[in-house]
Amino acid sequence: MRSVTTDPELARLAEHISRYGAEELGMTLPECRFFILDPMEFAALLEKNVYPTSPANIWEGKRMLNKRRRIAQGQESALYYEVVQTGNPSYAYLNETNSALTQASVMAHVLGHCEFSELNVLMDSDRDRTEQVMYLVRKVELARRQMGERRYIDYWNACESMIPLISPNAQYNLERSVELEHRRTEKRERKGDSEAAPAPPLLNPVSSSLNELFAGDPVAPIAAAEKKRAKAENLSRRGYRLRTPCQDVAGFLRAHAPASRAERMLLEYFYVSHMHQDFVIRTQIMNEGWAMYWEKKIMLHLFTERMVTGVIDYSRVFSGVCYPRPYYQRNPYHLGYHLWEHIEEEFRTGRLSLEYREEPMRDVRDSWNRPSQRDPHEYMRQLVSTITDYEFLRRYLTTELVEAYHLNRIPRSHGAALGIREDDVLRADRHWFWIDPEPIQKEMLDFFTHFGRPRIYVIDDDFLDGGLLLFHRDDGRALRADWIRPTLNNLKSIWKAPVYLLSQKYLHGFRAGKYEQQQVQCPTFEEVRERMRDDRKPFELE
Amino acid sequence: MPDRISSEESEGLFGDFIDEKLSDLVERAISEGELEQAPGDGSELIVEMDDIAPPEFTYGDTGGGGGGGQGPGDQGGKLRFGVSFDRFMELAAERLNLPDLTKEGRGKIKQVSYEFKTFGPTGVVLDRKRTFKRAVKSSIAVGEYRPDEDRYTVSIRRRDRRFKQPQRIEKPRFRAACFYVGDISYSTYGDRLELEKRLLSFIHHWLDFNYGHNKVEHRFFVHDVEAYEVTPDEFYQVSNIGGTRASMAFDLVARVARNEYDPNTTNLYCFYVGDGELLRQDAAEIVEIVQEQLRPAFNRLSVVEIKPSAHSCLVNFINRQFNEDRKVRASVMHRKQDVIPTIKHLLGSGRA
């Protein structure tokens, strides 16, 4: 691993691209550090979640050995297009076996990701991310010595089960789901400043207690007072209260599970080093499309300036990366890039305006060309800073674009597996058939409700005397049965008390050290949410 | 930033995990596996074990209870590993606590190999122990590691690293010859044949592993009332029902060893398997041959009675004469579970 400054040619290119991006294209860029790696370093970097160091563990070793074997057998390429850890500074890695042309395109692409990370609505970019993870790695190594090998490995393995439960950007994330004592106090203080003087008594002169009696339902104030007292007691005992289901289960464990300092370091490392994957999955189409969009602009400039050569080769690679795939395979490069191009074009011709939307005449709409005074890039950057993939597709992916981008074009060989019948086919040729584009936008949007993973929530942290109750939001699919028990066991060793899971009709959990699966009347997610809002137990065993 | 991004330590941990699992499989492979079919040096044993993955809540329809326990879960698939035969034998040696065989001889042909005997600040293979020792010394020197002040930091600096340096080693080439003697007058089929094959195939591989492939001459002898040499294939196939005289075979082995090998340059081994049903006079003659002709020249002599009967007496005769002898060993095998203890007894403990 060496800095790009050790290669004068690449260093010059990197500097030129960064300057061009920032000054000519107006990109908002953090400091971007480029490093050159050999192919096996690249493979190792990917296994370390794109951080240069990680604590040694058998899972990484297993994946790496497998990768090494696959590369040796030619089943996998050691050439990776681009690898970047965004943040400020951002760390981008170049493969030393790549040609100068590819290195330039990788650098240009990386700048797109860096800007997206800086501007996006989820506020992904943070300071010294890589440095922080490297610091945590050292802390975890220290924790290993403090805990002893056996306990360390057990705890590490337990934390591995927690990774898919990291959801810092979910609707029901930690911040929205858990009320903290100090946050509540702050809120009260803020509220206190703006609070108006108490309302004047209804009848004068009388005692305030008579006023209350005449004011309305006499039971309501008592119930409200009890609820307030229960909340206060709950908060004062634990320092927090679950007010809605919490989908960031790992975040909850990290914040509230009882743990030694060494264990807390492991929880911290796992959470911090994996939390950005949630941002990636929620913005992948916009993010990759944004990177491709700016990459192309920068590369065209480099070709014009004759700083790199090989425009035909580049076009071939570009079209390969942006090759259209069916909607269920979601090629984010293709879809994102074309949608950004489409938005730019629509904005330039004024079709993203209210007037265009409200124009009833078809021929006027078709010939609409009323350029806006604003720079389209400004509008596009505003989108980046306000929406994620879900809204991006909901707003801009129309039925016409589904057809134009071939999202409804299915290879014939996939037909049977997808259960497509002859009635569903609009037209066909030797290799493909086309299905109705209408429902495809909804299909693609549905993905963003679950991301292909089960939705698991913490709904009670005092279930059956201190147990943690998890809730699987039913979407008609069962969890893998033989992994429920070991996963609960792993989570139990983090929570240091029994952990239960409500999934479909069953309550799974360990009671007195014995695993049990019990048939119960499982509430719906909405019922759970309502009960929690009313400060009631979300689920109780009859 | 590190000098190099590497997962070697993690790969090493996974390798250790696999070795641990393999070590558990060694005894099973010897007593139940088809070791006799392994082609020896340069080949690989394919070992299968349950694949592992961290368990998580995921969609799937794998039913049943299963799972359980902390840590790795069963992914349902299989991990397949090619384990080199040498590595397998090393693990067997560790597991069964077998010593290295003494390599004696003054072979003129030199054998070249590379060993890691010296260490330097640069190289490919990091010596963790030495590196750590130096790191501790440095940390003490700069005051980072001071247990009396509750400071336990040990920093590994670049200058602390010590790498193993390959060194060219020339050694005389050792030779060995092993004589396998079988009694074909008893019913060598079914369980008996299987036990015999397991024991002798392990010995065969063990000697190959210790001396190197093609450096051990394996010779097979059988006897009824006569003794004669056979091919390895015939050794397990020929049979005869009738009288028996094992001393003829021991005599033949002594003559072959004396006439064809120089005990000063060759390590000689002899393993006898049979039911031990011999005439007392025959057994006494064997003891005499072993004592006078074989024991002085041979590194190890072993007699194994497989599924012996009430009339079997050879092991008793041998034990009476050579009790706790470091060269002459005798053992009895009744069932498959006896293979491991027998191997330990015949090849283990003491100088072989």
Mind explaining what this structure looks like?
- The complex is a heterodimer of chains A (542) and B (352).
- Chain A is α+β, with helices and mostly antiparallel strands and 542 residues long.
- Helices cover 53% and strands 12% of the residues of chain A.
- Chain A has 24 helices and 14 strands.
- In chain A, a hairpin with a 4-residue loop joins strand 3 and strand 4.
- The termini of chain A are far apart.
- Chain B has 352 residues and is of the alpha/beta class.
- Chain B has nine helices and 13 strands.
- In chain B, helix 4 (191-211) runs parallel beside helix 9 (339-347), helix 6 runs parallel beside helix 7 (280-297) and helix 7 packs across helix 8.
- The longest helix of chain B is centred in the N-terminal third of the chain and has 25 residues, at 8-32.
- At the A-B interface, helix 2, helix 3, helix 6 and helix 23 of A face helix 1 of B.
Show the helix and strand layout.
The complex is a heterodimer of chains A (542) and B (352).
Chain A: E1 2-3, H1 8-24, E2 32-37, H2 39-47, H3 58-72, E3 83-85, E4 90-95, H4 100-119, H5 129-147, H6 149-160, H7 174-177, E5 178-180, H8 181-194, H9 208-215, H10 219-238, E6 240-242, H11 249-256, H12 261-274, H13 276-304, H14 311-321, H15 332-348, H16 354-358, H17 362-366, H18 376-384, H19 389-396, H20 399-404, E7 409-411, H21 415-418, E8 425-428, E9 432-435, H22 440-450, E10 456-463, E11 467-472, H23 481-495, E12 499-503, E13 506-511, E14 514-519, H24 525-533
Parallel strand pairs in A: 2-4, 11-12
Antiparallel strand pairs in A: 1-2, 3-4, 5-6, 7-9, 8-9, 10-11, 12-13, 13-14
Helix pairs in contact in A: 1-4, 2-3, 4-13, 5-6, 5-12, 6-12, 6-23, 11-12, 13-15, 15-18, 19-22
Chain B: H1 8-32, E1 44-53, E2 73-84, H2 85-96, E3 110-120, E4 125-126, H3 128-141, E5 145-146, E6 151-152, E7 163-172, E8 175-183, H4 191-211, E9 216-223, E10 227-230, H5 232-235, H6 246-260, E11 266-274, H7 280-297, E12 300-306, H8 314-322, E13 328-333, H9 339-347
Parallel strand pairs in B: 8-9, 8-11, 11-12, 12-13
Antiparallel strand pairs in B: 1-2, 3-7, 4-7, 5-6, 9-10
Helix pairs in contact in B: 1-2, 4-9, 6-7, 7-8
